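Margin note: ligand = pyridoxal-5'-phosphate.
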Amino acid sequence: MFAGRDVRTDFPVLHQKVGAHPLVYLDNAATSHKPQVVIDAVSRFYERDNSNVHRGLHALSMRATDGYEAARARVARFINAASPAEIIFTRGTTESVNLVAQSWAAANLRRGDVILLTEMEHHSNMVPWQVAAERAGATLRYVPVVGDNAEHGLDLDALDRLLTPEVKLFAFTHISNTLGVITPAAELCRRARAVGAVTVVDAAQSIGHEPLDVQSLGCDFLAFSGHKMAGPTGIGVLYGRRALLDAMPPWQTGGGMISVVEFGSSRWKPSPERFEAGTPNVADAIGLHAAMDYLDGLGRPEISLHDHALAETAYAALAELPGIRLLGPAGRRAGLVSFALQDAHAHDVVTFADQDGVALRGGHHCNQPLMRKLGLPSSVRASFYVYNTPQEIDVLVRSLRRIIQFFRA
Ligand code: PLP
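Resulting structure:
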């Protein structure tokens, strides 16, 4: 994989011990680590180019502006957007979804309209729509998650009933952060378009793991975070189709987003500036640029194969453990596996695994309604990225065996 390259040497944080044990980091769905090239890009900006962007005429400001706008153009290429004007920098997925909810939805939703979501949405792609629906007098519908543990997926047959002309917006995740389900995003966008609904794709869990092309997906909006794709925290992206962005009002106002200001009123710049009031996160946009170069250097199809293979190996190995309930599909799944142990609470599992140097995540994973539907208070999640190895899955399984023995004793 990755043409024989030792990817682990690119990530300085991996080379440490937790207590007496080498770190086994399996919490990548929460946040991924950063390769040295990303750390260097951010440091270099502060060491050499640090300055504010867009309105400066001196050398440093021009370099900072060039770096920031080059990052925007790089994002456009990374997701095959038609133009950099369709790329808005935000703090992350959560802020990107809130931008659409507070701008597009506030301007376009009316009483009686419907927002369609799925039962597997992260709170970040659920709560903003609850608030938008309440403000507009709109209602929410959910595409159910069906099937038993081994076959969890979206009930696509229910879409015919749910996707009626009252649906003005369909927001759904590309990859479930708990179940590992990969949704048929292009088909969902096509079916939404057929009833005139605008689509919002939450790509938080897919952007760093799968090749992604917004034009072939056919989505109207797409949201993601830099920190889950080897990039810095505090930077993310909202992609929006130009025609929609041009018609949307700003959601935050202030410097940088205006063309003319009078004492009584103001006029706005076009996208993307209209949606980026105030000083942007220049350094981390530049770090994100380095992360995209890094991921493309490894090869995104290769990353996808690597992560899927680890998840399959982990799923099969974990299935052998006594008293385990695995969540999500047994077959094609993204690079993560969630599970619950009969005898131990998820938080205890994570605390005990940490004693073996294994970093997991336990809880509701910002999927409270889904967990309730599954009849679980919480689950444990192991999630993989480019630097994880099959040997680390062996360490995970050994640690879980120890935990099961302890709680059964
Ligand atoms: N959507 C999904 C599917 C996620 O997994 C996450 C984070 O875990 C988010 C949205 C929110 O991302 P952020 O906290 O970076 O805004």
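The longest strand covers residues 167-173.
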